Amino acid sequence: MTAFEEKVEKIFTETRMALADTFTDRVRFLGDSNCKAGIGAVLTYLSAKSDLGENDLKQLSVGKLPPDYERTHFEKHLKQLNEKLSKDELSFCSEAFLSGVSTSLAYLLKTAKFRDIDLLSAAAL
Length: 125
Description:
Helix content is 74%, strand content 0%. The chain has 125 residues and is mainly α.
């Protein structure tokens, strides 16, 4: 497992995002993989930044990435799944992806505040 994948797994595990065993295997697979993709999108976005402007911080603090960036990473993940999804499954995948984005941003912001570091440093841990 790469360091990047370890960070995704760490955030996924520590935020308890995994779906319960009571869900079907398919639902758990789609939900968990899209959530992890959302976490990965956040980490990729932050790792590409050398600093964050006021507008960046404002958007990130409410749990959102730039819309084009989110859409691109979500669509990339769906292509990697290489599965035919129903309309309901696609909607579920989108919600799981956005949950991964917002939850990981909240986690990183709390980590930054707790450790008295900036958000980019928290993402690099």
